[in-house]
Amino acid sequence: MAAVQDTPVSRRLSSIKHIIIVCSGKGGVGKSSVAAQLALKLYASTPNVRVGILDVDLTGPSIPRMLGVDGSSVHQSSDGWVPVYADASEARLACMSVGFLLKRKGDSVVWRGPKKNAMIRQFLSDVRWGELDYLVVDTPPGTSDEHLSLLEHLSPVHDRLSAIIVTTPQAVALMDAVKCLSFTRAVNLPVLGIVENMSGYVCPCCGEVSNVFSTAGGEEMARREGVRFLGALPVDTELVSLLDAAEATPPKAESGVPDAGSVGIELVRRYQATPSAKHFGKVLDTLQDALPAIERRTSIL
Ligand SMILES: Nc1ncnc2c1ncn2[C@@H]1O[C@H](COP(=O)(O)OP(=O)(O)OP(=O)(O)O)[C@@H](O)[C@H]1O
Ligand code: SF4
């Protein structure tokens, strides 16, 4: 493996095996939901696996709500920020988001590029993730300051860095997904594949998937662009009620103990029972087939 630069970010992230950046060309296509599901599914896939999720969607952080840890706060230790553990005492599902740093729920972040860059550098260099098998990074839609900052700090120091692109089957979303793909090529970021979200509708009564709108656009795009198709995820009302309503109980405030949502393990259990989890299982299998190619790379530079 090629030598990487020695920086505070490289020292902090050297104990992370894979960093997977979740992107979308367009807003509202379900990128954060896919990032949250990826973290939950990875967590549930193997005993003792350690997963982190970093939310750099600075202006619209939704990961804390989706993982049921909204309202928690990060603990500052002598060795950096301790992330919020969505699975409380097991401490295998770590979460960091600007949402934990806002004074009040619903406050918005209005920052220019340099301040966003500084925040992202701090997330990468100061969070005490410990050993992680996977760090999933949720990003804002499009290709913005946040993406450039992430890559500026990560590309020189981490060999196992890759992306997945989320789209819906509609033509407008697909066009934006192609732009997102072209960005990854421009910055030499390997793409594990494309996920087509909201592809068909799962009937809440019998679980049958009906193609109410167009489907398979993501698969066609993947074939055209020579990228792996990771799979399709249908519109699932059970997923919405699970992720949109995953409210945490009030965080604990014992001194020296990081706050944690107490609903995390229950959330994983309930997620595993949704139709989405079954479909995401196929996405995860395909993604895990793609990961060894990232491992074989000597450097992404
Ligand atoms: N497969 C799905 N089935 C049903 N609802 C979904 C699905 N995927 C996402 N949603 C819902 O769509 C809404 C938008 O999803 P999400 O916040 O993940 O999108 P996003 O692309 O991250 O948006 P943003 O533009 O804020 O970054 C949420 O309410 C989410 O619960
Ligand atoms: S998908 Fe199944 S339960 Fe839903 S309307 Fe059709 S037949 Fe009925």
Number of domains: 1
Question: How many helical stretches?
Answer: 10
Distance between the termini: 12 Å
Described by strand count, sense and barrel closure, the largest sheet is: 9 strands, mixed
From N to C, what is the helix and strand string?
Answer: HEHEHEEEEHEHEHEEHEHHH
Strand content: 15-25%
Mean pLDDT figure: 86
For the record, what CATH class applies? Alpha Beta
Radius of gyration: 18 Å
What structural class results from the helix and strand content? Answer: alpha/beta
Low-confidence stretches: 248-261
List the ligand species: adenosine-5'-triphosphate, iron/sulfur cluster
Describe what this molecule looks like in 3D.
This is P-loop containing nucleoside triphosphate hydrolase protein. Keywords: Hydrolase. Strands 1, 2, 5, 6, 7, 8, 9, 10 and 11 form a nine-stranded mixed β-sheet that branches. A two-stranded antiparallel sheet has the order 3-4. The protein has helices spanning 8-13, 31-45, 63-66, 113-126, 145-154, 171-186, 217-225, 237-244, 264-272, 275-296, and strands at 16-24, 51-55, 75-77, 80-82, 84-85, 93-97, 132-138, 161-167, 191-202, 209-210, 229-235. The protein is globular, with a radius of gyration of 18 Å. It has ten helices and eleven strands. It has one domain: Rossmann fold. A hairpin with a 2-residue loop joins strand 3 and strand 4. Helix 4 (113-126) packs parallel to helix 5. It is α/β, with parallel strands linked by helices. The structure holds adenosine-5'-triphosphate and iron/sulfur cluster. The site of adenosine-5'-triphosphate has 22 residues, from helix 2, strand 9, strand 11 and helix 8.
